[in-house]
């Protein structure tokens, strides 16, 4: 079907007519997308079945990646790339007058994630399959992914996301594999025939979990793994008075993805989602295991279960329940198996993001699971007591249940054999500070796995021009071995190569400029520096620092007509959690500043501000290839890793950033001349936090630039914004600027000046760009996944025949 262009065209046309019942001329791009999608899925299915057969019959250990989020983005383009059918499809469609790009744009993003954590899970799925590793994703099939953002009068407005509205080509419903998940009810104890104490969950309200499987195609291999997403549906319960309430509440469980919320809203529903994912996934994992292996005590040798952050941490008590209540193992043995089977990744040290569940919600919803958590806690506290007799405070700090709350991170640390951070610095902070108590007891459990991104989507698919240039220069082995990108360094003084690189960047800038004009009706200067900050909106990510710098540039240009820096286009993209008041004000501020500076004729040749609404994976794929400056300006110690930083680097942008998260490792690789580092170190930040001594008002009083810009937030400088930015002003001056925006301002301004100066030497800039691309191979998620596979999961590639 995809062997040659003529065959493809024939198959495409005949399927198109058969499935939509229209003549070719009458079909819509929507119809065409669906038909092509179905053709590709059918094409995949042979290898998918084959891969599953191999997994069913092999003794090889399997890994299950449990995540409450998988932020896949569009699926078709990635499948076309990995299957190696791009040329045939593109040329075949072109003969029919169809552009593959246009056709792909009919696919809605699969947006089942908030940001970094969910996108990491998606990159991992791509790497697992491409490395022929037996890795299975387990998640929830939310009816509505992350909300769609519209900007109305500069303000974020949220709309429900509707990725399933026109039908999903990539998923396969498997109702025969449905699993019942019980909630509520009570636990009864009884004695069985052998006189053993047993437990029974009675009067529960069951929910049906129905799996939808999505194939995950590896790059140039026959491996097709599975991402299994669970859908919540009413179980077959007797008709009762409240059947409508039951139906509604059941469907709610997989209705919405939670936007990482600043508020406590919908807590119980979120806990339901977490247990729903865990119960269904473990049931299906254990079913596969039992079909192959007889002895449950062998579980850790055949199965590895990974929990992505604490959201799936109930896998620990759930596996204990299975081993105790179903397999009837003694506690100690069950505990040993559980710890050996499960591993955990921590993604943040921010205390407000660490999950805690009130016992009053937890216990009635999950009565048997709560009993088990209580016992885990009691046994753990007893061990602590033996180790630290009399140290009540320490024991209280480390307990899993304390002050009527269940601390999910503590459960994860105690109930798994491996805890990893997501960048070197982050892991060090976990060990030395945030989780130091636990590190003291379990030092061997802590390890680092620096994040990565799939270079297939983030370079090969999204930046074909750069991919072509790289391949012309160093051949194409880097595609399966990204560290080989290092060979590009030989070209850093090659004038012809640098010129080509500049041309590629320029073409990508032209495309992004078209998108900006289409969405925002703003004409940007193609010779301006494209300076980009795209990521979720959070105070610690300090979009505000970026904005204050823009205001300063504007003020200085207004004041001093001889001050005209190299033209810049500041591009933003960011969603704020709907309940996060401050973050929404920052979005309004960015748009307000944009309105002012873009319309000032005296400055707007030099300064443009663009806020691109509805930042998402597919938009990101248009942005990274065109970026020249990558803004990674979080307060040091706060950003666990960041992964956007890696995408920018791989596409040749230069980073301006703090020594935070994976920026530290980017710095180590490219060297100080090819990155712009500023601001306090994490040590300095943590010292301030521990010992005090920071007074933001001093910076406001003593620095004219800060004084002026901060005053402009509240003094009517922006028309019709009376009182609108008071919270921002207060966060800086009344609340003593928690994230040290004013403290780092001067350093940031000076470093931005260095950026502008460096850009004057275009050759030198391009050279730095080459060094960035050449050293980005380390940040391929293939490296990250190889490390997880070797050090944590102990899984090996399963050799399905390879066509590499
Ligand atoms: C969640 C919340 C929710 C409540 C309000 C404050 C807040 C702040 C942060 C978070 C994030 C939770 C976990 C997370 O998404 N971490 C991100 O994981 C990425 C992949 O490892 C990593 O690159 C990012 O640095 C990290 O923030």
UniProtKB/TrEMBL annotation:
Allosteric enzyme that catalyzes the rate-limiting step in glycogen catabolism, the phosphorolytic cleavage of glycogen to produce glucose-1-phosphate, and plays a central role in maintaining cellular and organismal glucose homeostasis. Phosphorylase is an important allosteric enzyme in carbohydrate metabolism. Enzymes from different sources differ in their regulatory mechanisms and in their natural substrates. However, all known phosphorylases share catalytic and structural properties. GO terms for molecular function: glycogen phosphorylase activity; pyridoxal phosphate binding. It holds the Pfam family Phosphorylase. GO terms for cellular component: cytoplasm. Gene3D superfamilies: Glycogen Phosphorylase B. It is an enzyme of class 2 (transferase). It catalyses: [(1->4)-alpha-D-glucosyl](n) + phosphate = [(1->4)-alpha-D-glucosyl](n-1) + alpha-D-glucose 1-phosphate. Keywords: Allosteric enzyme, Carbohydrate metabolism, Glycosyltransferase, Pyridoxal phosphate, Transferase. InterPro entries: Glycg_phsphrylas, Glyco_trans_35, Pyridoxal_P_attach_site. Coiled coil: none annotated. GO terms for biological process: glycogen catabolic process. The keyword Glycosyltransferase applies. NCBIfam families: P_ylase. This is Alpha-1,4 glucan phosphorylase. The modification N6-(pyridoxal phosphate)lysine is found at residue 647. Belongs to the glycogen phosphorylase family. Its EC number is 2.4.1.1. Its cofactor is pyridoxal 5'-phosphate.
């Amino acid at each position: 079907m995809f062997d040659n262009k003529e065959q493809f065209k024939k198959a495409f046309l005949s399927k198109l007519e058969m499935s939509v019942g229209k003549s070719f001329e009458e079909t819509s791009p929507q119809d065409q997308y669906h038909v092509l999608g179905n053709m590709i899925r059918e094409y995949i299915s042979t290898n998918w079945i084959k891969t599953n057969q191999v997994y069913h019959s092999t003794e090889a250990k399997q890994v299950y990646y449990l995540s409450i989020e998988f932020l896949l983005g569009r699926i078709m383009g990635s499948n076309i790339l990995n299957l190696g059918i791009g040329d045939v499809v593109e040329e075949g469609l072109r003969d029919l007058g169809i552009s593959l790009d246009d056709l792909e744009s009919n696919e809605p993003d699969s947006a089942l994630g908030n940001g970094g954590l969910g996108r990491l899970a998606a990159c991992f799925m791509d790497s697992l399959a491409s490395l022929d590793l037996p890795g299975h994703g387990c998640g929830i099939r939310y009816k509505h992914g992350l909300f769609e953002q519209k900007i109305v009068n500069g303000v974020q407005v949220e709309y429900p996301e509707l990725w399933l509205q026109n039908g999903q080509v990539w998923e396969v419903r498997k109702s025969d594999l449905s699993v019942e998940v019980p909630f509520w009810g009570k636990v009864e104890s009884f004695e069985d025939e052998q006189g053993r104490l047993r437990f029974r969950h009675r009067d529960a309200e069951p929910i049906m979990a129905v799996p939808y499987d999505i194939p995950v195609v590896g790059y140039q291999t026959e491996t097709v793994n599975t991402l299994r997403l669970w859908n919540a549906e009413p179980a077959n319960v007797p008709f009762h008075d409240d059947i409508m309430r039951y139906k509604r509440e059941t469907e709610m469980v997989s209705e919405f993805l939670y936007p990482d919320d600043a508020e406590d809203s919908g807590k119980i529903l979120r806990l339901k989602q977490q247990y729903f994912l865990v119960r269904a996934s473990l049931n299906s994992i254990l079913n596969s295991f039992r079909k192959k292996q007889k002895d449950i005590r062998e579980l850790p040798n055949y199965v590895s279960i990974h929990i992505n952050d604490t959201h799936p941490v109930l896998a620990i008590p759930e596996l204990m329940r299975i081993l105790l209540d179903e397999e009837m193992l003694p506690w100690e043995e069950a505990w040993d198996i559980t710890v050996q089977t499960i591993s955990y990744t921590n993604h943040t040290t921010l205390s407000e993001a660490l999950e805690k569940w009130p016992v009053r919600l937890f216990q009635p919803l999950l009565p048997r699971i709560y009993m088990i958590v209580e016992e885990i806690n009691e046994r753990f506290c007893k061990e602590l007591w033996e180790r630290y007799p009399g140290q009540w405070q320490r024991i209280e700090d480390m307990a899993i249940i304390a002050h009527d709350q269940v601390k999910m991170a503590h459960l994860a640390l105690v109930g798994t054999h491996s805890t990893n951070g997501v960048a070197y610095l982050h892991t060090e902070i976990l060990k030395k500070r945030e989780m130091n108590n636990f590190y003291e007891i379990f030092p061997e459990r802590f390890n680092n796995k620096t994040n990565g991104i799939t270079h297939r989507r983030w370079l090969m698919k999204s930046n074909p021009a750069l991919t072509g240039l790289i391949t012309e220069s160093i051949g194409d082995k880097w595609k399966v071995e990204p560290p080989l990108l290092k060979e590009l360094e030989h070209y850093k003084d090659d004038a012809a190569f640098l010129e080509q690189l500049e041309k590629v960047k320029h073409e990508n800038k032209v495309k992004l400029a078209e998108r900006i004009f289409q969405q925002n009706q703003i004409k940007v200067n193609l010779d301006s520096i494209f300076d980009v900050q795209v990521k979720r909106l959070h105070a610690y990510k300090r979009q505000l620092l970026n904005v204050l710098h823009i205001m300063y540039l504007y003020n200085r240009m207004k004041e001093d007509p001889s001050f005209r820096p190299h033209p810049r286009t500041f591009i933003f993209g960011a969603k704020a959690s709907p309940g996060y008041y401050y973050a929404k004000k920052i979005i309004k501020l960015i748009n307000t500043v944009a309105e002012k500076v873009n319309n000032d004729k005296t400055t707007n040749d030099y300064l443009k501000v663009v806020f691109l609404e509805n930042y998402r994976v597919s938009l990101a794929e248009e942005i990274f290839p065109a970026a020249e400056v990558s803004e990674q300006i979080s307060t040091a110690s706060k950003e666990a890793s960041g992964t956007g930083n890696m995408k920018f680097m791989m596409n040749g942008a230069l980073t301006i950033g703090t020594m935070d998260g994976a920026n530290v490792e980017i710095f180590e690789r490219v060297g100080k001349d090819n990155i712009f580092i500023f601001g306090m170190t994490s040590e300095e930040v943590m010292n301030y936090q521990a010992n005090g001594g920071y007074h933001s008002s001093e910076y406001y009083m003593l620095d004219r630039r800060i004084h002026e810009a901060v005053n402009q937030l509240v003094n009517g400088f922006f028309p019709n914004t009376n009182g609108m930015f008071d919270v921002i002003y207060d966060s800086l001056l009344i609340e003593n600027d928690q994230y040290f925006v004013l403290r780092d301002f001067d350093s940031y301004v000076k470093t931005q000046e260095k950026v502008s100066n460096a850009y004057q030497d275009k050759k030198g800039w391009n050279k730095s760009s080459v060094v960035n691309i050449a050293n980005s191979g380390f940040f391929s998620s293939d490296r990250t996944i190889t490390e997880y596979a070797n050090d944590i999961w102990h899984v090996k590639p399963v050799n399905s025949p390879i066509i590499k």
